[in-house]
Amino acid sequence: MKKIINAAALIFLLGLVTFSYSQEKTYTEKDAEIVASVGENFIISLESNQSTGYSWSVGMVSDNSQVVVAGMDYDLPEGSVTGQGGAEVWHMKAVAPGVVKLVFYYSRSWEKDAPAKTLNFNVSIK
Which of 26, 94, 107, 116 is a plausible cystine mate for 36, CB 3.0–4.6 Å? Predict the structure, then answer.
């Protein structure tokens, strides 16, 4: 009986972690404004094709103490083929109140030309 209760508790905790992770709001290049609360995690998902050598990098135009990059994943669609694009999923965390401008650059690291694409996100943290 104790094993059943422990297993049920573990399943409940895993479900709780999955639920809280899925509550992160996801923004795409169509979103220019992001509103978050201190301590809140959010995601910026950008179309990308790393097989071409292009990838996104992020910079902060204002004080970078309001938002931190918690990580980045590269997601490919189910059943993708070689050379097919996917999405770079940037995990961000709002850590202090204020306003910050995030700028994402889509470029090849070895090229010195201007980025192929630039995206701006204005983040307001309450």
Answer: 94
Q: Report d(CA 102, CA 83) in Å as an integer.
A: 28
**How far is it between the farthest Cα atoms of the chain?**
66
**Helices (DSSP H) in 1-126: which residue ranges?**
2-22
Q: How many residues does the chain have?
A: 126
| Nearest of 84, 85, 102 to residue 93 by alpha carbon | 102
Q: pLDDT (tens digit, 9 = 90+) per residue, 17-33?
A: 444 445 799 999 999 89
The pTM for the full model equals 0.77
